[in-house]
Amino acid sequence: MTDYGHDLAFGTFITPQNADPHAPVRLAQLSEQAGLDLVTFQDHPYQPTFHDTWTLLSWVAARTERVTLSGNVLNLPLRQPAVLARAAASLDLLSGGRVALGIGAGAFWDAVAAMGGPRLTPGESVQALEEAMEIVRGIWDARERRPLRLDGEHHRVAGAKRGPAPAHDIPIWVGAYKPRMLRLVGRAADGWLPSLAYLKDGDLRRGNAIVDEAAQEAGRDPSEVRRLLNVGGAVLPSRQGFLQGPVEQWVDELTALAIEDGVGTFVLASDEPRLIEVFGEEIAPAVREQVARERSASGTVPAAARRGARALALRRPGIDYAAVPASLAATAVEPGDREYPAVRHNYLRAGAPGIVLRPRTTEQVVEALAYARAQDVPLGVRSGGHGISGRSTNDGGVVIDLGGLDRIEVVDGATRRVRLGAGATWGAVAEALRPHGWAISSGDYGGVGVGGLATTGGVGLLGRVFGLTIDHVVAAEVVTADGRVLHASADENPDLFWGLRGAGANLGIVTWVEVEAMPLGDVVYSRMTLDATDTAGLLERWGAAVERAPRELTSFLILSPGRRGDGPVAQLMTVHASDDTDAAVRELERLADAGPVLAHEAYLVPYTGVVQRVPKDHAGGGDPAVRSGLVEHLDPDTSRAFEKLAASGVPYFLQVRATGGAAHDVAPDATAYPHRHQNFVLTAMAVSQDRMDAVWDAEMAPHTDGLYLSFDTDTRPERLVDAFGEPGLARLRRLKREYDPQNVFRSNFPIPPADD
């Protein structure tokens, strides 16, 4: 018996005939309605009575909502691998991660040659397929910055740009029958996809043995290769042959294929609507139930819990991998897994966690936290992974990645109340709110996660008109250190609600926040470059112009120190939160007076043009050291100090963000973020924390009044007072004693619980 423990999946194998162009589309929709998981189509590009399969897949993706879609299998000799990779990634992004890539080495060589494709021998076709798989995966690896190069015998790329990354880890399933192809499947593919009609007795067993041996030689667990099978038959009143009989016969025979031959996905080759309905509504549920019973009796280990020898060797000490909760095991990522590079880092900081858990519900967050607490390793919690401080990853620890909690929903249209999952990104939020004519002030980059920003502050490009992001949070759900799920608002757990808005990372794992959005139409977005030779003078003039400007204007300044003979320049990112272009031009002209203008462009755009939706994959970048400080004015002394800081050669990135305006309307003690009189946040980033601390403390510290938590990596205990103020810190310590007395959440400016 061979059971790899895969979760069972069921789908259809539909003929892409075009006599009635929408007939295969209707069958795909019927498959989804019947509860099936997968819809596949043949691919014969040389067949004029068939649709082009890729075009059909794209159309069906737009007409369905849930099913995974794949060719069965795509004719690789007529589909250039790099282009196919981009097409698959694009469709995966558009469909929300519903693409699988079923490919084959080719067949019907006369027809292939007639279409201009190569005529390959069996050995050549296997080599061509292996080269193609390397190219496809190389294109998908958007984290790798080097261009893709492969000089194969049959496929070549010479410096191809990588990307886009798909929405999920697209599996590659290979149609294979002969030993050489099966060995390729074992060492490199994610699934083996034959048709039962082409197999003789014992071929499944013999094929599994070849695949398993090749997988083990490659350091993989054989369960990493899903076994799929195209099957055909008929539901009949009595038994008349294999899969030719009543539903009960189908259930018994498919169960035997799952338990004895390891088949995890059954694909029904049929264009008969009634058979599709019975397969999805009656046969598939019964097979799942019967297989579950037999696995329970035999103690079968789920495929998600198995790892190859190479992966096992990469496991980190202090983590009980066998104890990962069953609800999280299927999506957990360990070192050695193919998805690991996509989840190990955050935006700026490199990481090497021992395991990344990816819950999709609040209940799974509770399980993930309980598991993490039982391990003797660091804990990180990630919403979007963009945080400059880099605390959402670690080395050798557990990371709870909330990216699956990304739902965005309108709770109350009259009050513009919106519930945002902690793992959603602000670019996605802006996109979802645009049809309503609403917006939420949310930093300056769409890849930032909701959870981090909405619990720390939120100094954004709408900040002077709308205030901080936390100023519009009206409720939250949080998992506390002891596993309780609490709701916090002005009326429910109000003290916790106060602390979550500014110090949320210390008090629990926020799973969602409710925010009151603001009405907003188009805005004027300006990017201006100024000569910053007179750095102090430019800062002083720009700061004064911002303070005099109406609240509709918010401006950020990035200062680039002079390098290699070039003088310093300042880049302004400015939003005028109105479609009044005349008023915007007047204010932008005042900003331009701060220094000689080198370049300027401005646009009338929706807020989605400012905070755009971007991929969340992060490649890290080392271990940056960051300091921040708030100031009331960019007066001459402060501006000269910032100029000296830039000229020191220590920081490679410096920024000033305008805050104030509406943020000043909130009392300092209304939230855990107390900084309600300052107008600017100053930030500098360097390679060395010691050097950064030394020059910042010497030049900037005497002029600053507080710090911005998300932009600082100096975690000396005395900095807590700078972050929260004396009264606020004392209150937070009492909250810490109540909600996290054991200091479980200590990776982000840890607040010590009150002693008494």
From TrEMBL:
One Gene Ontology molecular-function label: FAD binding
Keyword Flavoprotein among UniProt keywords: yes
Entry annotated with the keyword Flavoprotein: yes
Key words of the record: FAD, Flavoprotein, Oxidoreductase
Cofactors: FAD
Top-rank taxon: Bacteria
Positions of transmembrane segments: none
Residue ranges of domain FAD-binding PCMH-type in the record: 348-520
Any Pfam family the entry gives: Bac_luciferase
Family the UniProt entry places it in: Belongs to the oxygen-dependent FAD-linked oxidoreductase family.
Name used for this protein in its record: FAD linked oxidase domain protein
Protein's organism: Isoptericola variabilis (strain 225)
